[in-house]
Amino acid sequence: MSVRELVVLGTASQVPTRHRNHNGYLLRWDGEGLLFDPGEGTQRQMLRAGVAAHDLHRICVTHFHGDHSLGLAGVIQRINLDRVPHEVTAHYPLSGQRFFDRLRYATAYRETVALTEAPVDADGVLAVSASYTLEARQLSHPVESYGYRLVEPDGRRMLPELLAERGVKGPDVGRLQREGSLSGISLDDVSEVRRGQRFAFVMDTRLCDGVYALAEGCDMLVIESTFLDEDLQLASDHGHLTAGQAGAVAKDAGVRHLVLTHFSQRYSEPDEFERQARAAGFEGELTVAHDLVRVPVPKRR
Question: Would you please indicate which residues are annotated as catalytic (active-site) residues?
Fold first, then answer.
């Protein structure tokens, strides 16, 4: 049975708190696991959340600030300690190669796993699999930063009333799906496009074209909202978003489920983030992330 869910490992920004670990997010997408921005303490949070090293297939780092990358050393060593049997691919900004190298080889250990380095140096497609295309878009932050987007290929939804009308039933339905036509009946005659799901991960950034390109039409958008709206200037100065800006992006992009995260330690009232995102006009499903929660990707339309 396929599972698509976000496992939140940490939600703090620069400074962790008693209740918020540094960043870490695992996206389970069918049989694969994509780990985004493993900050300090991610390996322990994985243990608490029931996430094993064997669950990891890709590691996607948006940028090399410590709260988004210091956990790489422990995660990579754990992958090797547990002898993960499949290839693991790491994506990260090419401009931070020296940081990745230092974290990968921070201490002595025995390498047992094929860890493929696939750095990002421009907008575009990073990988294509049967169940998704992984894309990257550059963001606006004091250091080079990229957001990530998964797009599932469109499929077809068979329409029972049209199948019955054309007399297609039993094994012939499968044959029609595989071959595209049968006895003069085309697949288009008895089905409609089933739009593939879309997921985006947007961390430290000001508003920019990349934010909107990543968020467009997403079923789930995980996005930083480091500051509340009253600290808009502070957010802009440091290359971050406010809760209201995140909500407005989600509204304009037609997002179905908005996940707010990466909160500054200066705020103690998480409900205010939701209020400000709603005030910006977002009316879809909304989660103010907490450590160790699991958020299902919305079902297909």
Answer: 67
